[in-house]
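Inverse folding, one chain.
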């Protein structure tokens, strides 16, 4: 009894801090996961506030991006650019990533093996084409705008190995879901052509917008996610990334779009919008430069020092990844190896 009390007392500041930042776990945070607070609208207040501040920051950052891209991002929730790099630059990048040799993290997701390399200053030193992509002015401005935080995202190289010969685990990426309660942005520069054979990205255009229907859905989901024990459906909720059923999607009036795109296509998407990794019909690979921009949604400001802030985030995230490695390696969900991507 006493130990429980002290544990709660000790964790209270952390839970409160999470409440005012990107914390989303209904399972691990009893304030975010409080049935009564959510009944009174806690989840909805967090969503509305985060979306309002996102729009405010976007407005201030609008000189970074042409009006047509801003409009598309606002209405549909994504921006797509085919033939993003000049051919010579793209071929150089593809050669560099295909021949990459170094530390790789590998995760089991369903029957997919996801191999990732987190790009920090050390990797950039050894990868000139990657360095030049990260410094690409058009990409830099686009990501600084879309993230609404005026800093470049975290960069990874990601290589999916579909239908790899592994013991399957549930794959959370294959169900349509929103990543979290606030707008946040991911980007992919495709190194391979993508079609049904290698699991194309699926996105629901317009589903990033707040509507009364969406807010009602969010409210119902937040109450469901607060359930504990046997009352909770273990297959359905995944730490605050709500999944949406085909029926609910239809009721909200949405239609998913499958992105069959050629190599050298850049896709930037607000992953508050519903999305998933499409099924791959055969044993195949899909390599991308993967970008992730997540930041405190309740901070109304953005950085005025994009470069140094980006480096600070990279440094901090590298530490977090090292900490996460320990748990994931122990659970068998992850393995780390030195070598090349499987192709
Ligand atoms: Fe996602």
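Residues assigned per position:
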């Amino acid at each position: 009894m006493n130990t429980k009390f002290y544990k709660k007392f000790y964790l209270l500041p952390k839970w409160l801090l999470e409440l005012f930042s990107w914390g989303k776990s209904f399972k691990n945070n009893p304030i975010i996961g409080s049935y009564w607070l959510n009944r009174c609208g806690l989840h909805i207040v967090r969503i509305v506030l985060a979306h309002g501040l996102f729009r405010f920051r976007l407005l201030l950052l609008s000189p970074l991006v042409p009006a047509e891209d801003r409009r598309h991002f606002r209405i549909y929730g994504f921006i797509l650019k085919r033939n993003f790099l000049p051919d010579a630059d793209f071929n150089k990048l593809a050669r560099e990533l295909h021949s990459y040799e170094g530390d790789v993290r590998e995760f089991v997701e369903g029957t997919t093996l996801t191999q990732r390399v987190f790009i920090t200053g050390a990797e950039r030193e050894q990868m000139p084409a990657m360095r030049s992509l990260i410094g690409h002015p058009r990409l830099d401005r686009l990501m600084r705008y879309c993230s609404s935080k005026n800093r470049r995202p975290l960069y990874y190289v990601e290589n999916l190995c579909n239908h790899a010969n592994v013991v399957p685990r549930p794959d959370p990426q294959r169900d349509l879901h929103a990543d979290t309660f606030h707008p946040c942005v991911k980007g992919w520069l495709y190194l391979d052509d993508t079609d049904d054979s290698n699991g194309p990205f699926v996105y629901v255009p317009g589903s990033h917008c707040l509507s009364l229907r969406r807010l009602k859905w969010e409210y119902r989901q937040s109450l469901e996610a607060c359930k504990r024990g046997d009352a909770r459906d273990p297959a359905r909720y995944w730490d605050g990334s709500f999944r949406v059923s085909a029926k609910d999607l239809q009721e909200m009036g949405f239609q998913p779009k499958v992105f069959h795109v050629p190599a050298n296509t850049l896709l930037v998407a607000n992953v508050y919008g519903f999305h998933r990794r499409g099924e791959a019909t055969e044993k195949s690979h899909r390599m991308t430069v993967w970008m992730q921009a997540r930041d405190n949604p309740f901070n109304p400001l953005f950085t005025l020092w994009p470069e140094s802030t980006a480096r600070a985030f990279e440094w901090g995230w590298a530490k977090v990844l090292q900490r996460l490695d320990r748990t994931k390696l122990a659970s068998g969900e992850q393995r780390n190896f030195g070598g090349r991507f499987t192709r």
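The pocket of fe (ii) ion is lined by residues 177, 179, 271, 275 (CB under 6 Å). The CA atoms of residues 55 and 61 lie 10 Å apart.
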